[in-house]
Amino acid sequence: MTAGAPQPLLDSLREIVGAVHVITKPEELLVYECDAYTLEKQLPTAVVLPGGTAEVIAVVKACATHGVPIIPRGAGTSLSGTVLAVTGGIMIALTRMNRILDIDVANRRALVEAGCVNAWVTNAVKGKGLFYAPDPSSQPACTIGGNVGTNSGGPHTLKYGVTTNHILGLELVLPDGEVVWLGTTPDGGEDVDGYDLRGVVIGSEGMFGIVTRVLLRLVRAPQAFKTMLGVFNTVDQASQTVSDIIGAGIVPGALEMMDQLITQAVEAAYKFGFPLDAGAVLIIELDGLAPGLERQAETVVGICRKNGAREVRLAGSDQERADLWKSRKRAFGAIGRLSPNFITQDGVVPRSKLPEMMDFIAECSRKFGLRIPNVFHAGDGNIHPLILYDERDPAQVKRALEASQAILEKCIELGGSVTGEHGIGVEKIDFMARQFSPDDLEAMRLLRRVFDPNGRCNPHKMFPGSKRCGDFAPRKQIAA
Amino acid sequence: MVNRDRFLDYDKSLACIHCGLCLASCPTYLETGNENDSPRGRIYLMRALQDGRLPLADTGVRHIDLCLGCRACEAVCPSGVQYGELLETTREHIEKRYTRSLYQRFLRRFVIEKIFPVPARMRLFLWPARIAKALRLDRLLPGALREPLALIPDRITTADLPEFSPTDRPSVRGRVGVISGCVMSSMFGETNKATVELLNRAGYDVVVPKNQACCGALFAHGGNLDQARQCAKENIEAFEAENLDAVIINAAGCGSTLKEYGHLLHSEAAWRTRGEAFSKKVKDITEWLAPPSTLQPSNPSTHEPAPQQRVTYHDACHLAHAQRITKPPRELVRAIAGLSFVELPEADVCCGSAGSYNLTEPEMAERLQRRKVENILKTGAKIVVTTNPGCILQIKAGLAKAGSDAQVMHIADYLLGECKPA
Known about the structure:
The complex is a heterodimer.
Chain A: H1 7-17, E1 22-23, H2 26-29, E2 46-48, H3 53-66, E3 70-73, E4 90-93, E5 100-104, E6 109-113, H4 118-125, E7 130-131, H5 144-150, H6 157-160, E8 167-173, E9 179-183, H7 197-201, E10 210-217, E11 219-220, E12 224-232, H8 235-247, E13 254-259, H9 260-270, E14 280-288, H10 290-306, E15 311-314, H11 318-329, E16 341-344, H12 354-368, E17 375-376, E18 386-389, H13 394-413, H14 429-435, H15 438-451
Parallel strand pairs in A: 2-4, 3-4
Antiparallel strand pairs in A: 1-2, 5-6, 6-10, 7-11, 8-9, 8-10, 12-14, 12-15, 13-14, 13-17, 16-18
Helix pairs in contact in A: 1-3, 8-10, 8-12, 9-11, 12-13
Chain B: H1 10-14, H2 27-32, H3 39-51, H4 58-65, H5 72-76, H6 83-97, H7 102-115, H8 119-134, H9 143-151, E1 164-165, E2 174-178, H10 183-187, H11 189-201, E3 204-207, H12 217-222, H13 225-240, E4 246-249, H14 252-258, H15 261-264, H16 269-281, E5 282-284, H17 285-289, E6 311-313, H18 317-320, H19 327-337, E7 341-342, H20 357-360, H21 362-379, E8 383-386, H22 389-401, E9 407-410, H23 411-418
Parallel strand pairs in B: 2-3, 2-4, 4-5, 6-7, 6-8, 8-9
Antiparallel strand pairs in B: 1-3
Helix pairs in contact in B: 11-23, 13-16, 19-23, 21-22
């Protein structure tokens, strides 16, 4: 079922943003029927591309008048259907609002529009010795607004923290069109009295309103890096190394694992020089003041060797380090070389349970007859099994979904959670009831009602019992 | 209903897993914010066309037309989607099955395909245009014609290169061929001469076969693959006989097509092998000359950073994205400019020239031209170096419009002008 858009609403939308920025033709809405999670699809009723906060307010008010759902969207790189128009509605894409409005070096902050691409921020301040820390792998394309929605992480969040640790304040257009600024204002001091409503909005998956401007914290770029590649025969050895490094009191800037299958795909894509016969590789990056790094690196190398590493390579230049990270960050995309489709999970388990979890994933791969490569943030126990399938084979789709479910159940069983950074979206709705008690869920619903009393903003996400897409999976995709 | 014309290599289109990492690299998406104007969106449309989910009508064609073919998306795609190839076969399908306006047909079938690729006709065509410009008659023309006229530079040089130019260096390092190009030979004759001169100085004998043809890029990009294949065969025959170490090209747009002859001719086994062998020898002038030791620049200490000499470099799409060559040209420019070199923000975002795009899509071409010029002005550079004739014309016209006196130079002219003979 699709919520139709009354003609008067479309007319006012065109008047607000200009006809060229309102998309209503079915053929032009196709690409907006899903994000990077392609199992469920639904066309929005229309897509609107506002050019500034004032236009967002007017658009939201018009939708409120007609009682039509609104769905915020950035670059659509999310992996859990967070921006799916489950029952149609007006999708508000912030891709034209992509400017960096101000860079305040003295106070180490940047004011950006929500559609600003994550990587642009670091690029803009690199020359000043600063950077924006949260670095999801999609950072060359994903938007800051989307990062706020899912509280994105990234390889370097192990040391630097996730999105919420780097957002000072934000401008939010509430579902009734009222606009509020939460947290530190662009010209205000950092400590804000009262409840931290900014923190509540970060990770709310676009269900509290439309974030239009964001004040980011910039951090000083590390003076030096030691980036190492540990090569292991087995995933077990690599997992143990992860636990031991953290156990030794070292907090690397990043600590990432790739298993054999993904290493092979990534090597085919980027030709970095990864060993194709290794059971697993670890990317270990130490950063900070140059003098202390040497000794830390020695300790890390020692731990790797003790756990049976057959080789530990050190990136010899900035270029080599950049190439290594490029390979890691584009690993998901390299899956296109192995399989036409994949589902990924981003469950979290205690670090000490990693070996057990990895064994379980390998067992799932055998049991369901599907290849499951792994590339993940080992340092914080945030797994990313990539379950490969071909959507043209309904039996495979079914097995992929079952495998995915089994893995997430195991995460909960081991004392972890079902998502570290990708969000619940539509994909993991069913797990909410397993992870939270009815009281917990009711508290969350009450909180949402404070911002969106009618449940009109990005509806049918997060909460069990939400509506699913009518033609849920296996359906012939026209594009994935 | 599935479209019975199989124009799309479906497996290749399935390599797109919809991750969206291409979005921010796409110049048209950066301008419109509309995903239908992004690589991911266009692949969606191509598949919908192939599946018969989308009729071959104005809306779909519009978004495919608006693609610059700059292939910036290919360079960032983790799945290795061969977007350029998907685009060319889709465009071929569109040209065969879709009826365009009379003006677009005139541009595409006559100006772009019949005049540009033939240097003699191109020179003839330029005369009335230059006279109109000199007499300022251009003000009387409608906008659609005025824009392309603005691109024609005031100074045009033509030069017929000698068939053989030996190096005067005592030790000959090799024997290379040079593609003289269509636009290059009819508007940038001096640049072609500079290219030969640089190669001679670096110790190469240079051969310029008279019977060479257009590289075929203009045809291929416009969806006329048959004509492009004909060009390829003529070039293979012309250069094959010469026993060369390399075939040098100084226009990035031609270079990328010349390097893809094997693929272009993939359906004819014998030609494919010959095409692959030819393409393997094709080198852009910058990748052949780098590292810069062959240049023998004047003493770097005399090149103190002087603000009026600040130099920047614009990546031609078909060099940076299609051929992935970004370091050699910078090394060469840096070797001369030293500290006066500044990086250009968004250096690898298309300037809007894109082959014949500035004729067929003048509005978007102008938006991207403005974006490029704004970035150049931010650097304060007085010289913009690049490697493709289309970019030179486009950026030159844009800077003139903005009232800037910054020069735009082909890298061969820049290097030759700044290097003292050893």
